[in-house]
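Dataset card, provenance and construction

Sequences and ligand SMILES were collected as paired inputs. For each pair, a complete structure of the chain with the small molecule in place was predicted and serialized as structure tokens. The example below shows a pair involving zinc ion. Curators did not alter the output after generation; any descriptive sentences attached to a record were derived from the structure itself.
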Amino acid sequence: MVTMDISKSNSKERLSLYNHLMKKMKFMEEDRIASFKNWQYSESDKCSVQKMAEAGFFYTGHGEDDDSATCFVCGKVLDGWESNDDPWEEHEKHAPNCRFVNTHLIQDDYSVEQLFNLAEVVVKAHLTKSFNKKLVSINNTADEVRDIIKNQSSY
Ligand SMILES: [Zn+2]
């Protein structure tokens, strides 16, 4: 986990944090490709590693029988892939509001401006998700503290 005060960081540290976030979020196609280590489908299948990554998916399965893949933008998880499944079609069918799937562009066809806009969407979603996770944890701790106080005051 990266913990640092971004307001005190220099540009080199910021770039390194940015790169770390981009890798973690599987923003670049090459990082999504690298996530599919034991993918059961070959390059001739419709859901090849290349096609999966182009359509925004990275591998999130656990173990041999789990072919779960997740979209790096909308977070949709799809599994039960078959060799004839087209990743773009499946993505559109199950997550029609995804910003990535709506553009229907592969990474190389993005303009720099489009890439920055997409990065903004992905970073916002990522931060919202981790903020909400922390909020749940804070609320749970507050509940525990409340229970302790309640139990003590009943003596
Ligand atoms: Zn998506």
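Derived descriptions for this record:
The two ends are 42 Å apart (CA to CA).
The longest helix spans residues 112-153.
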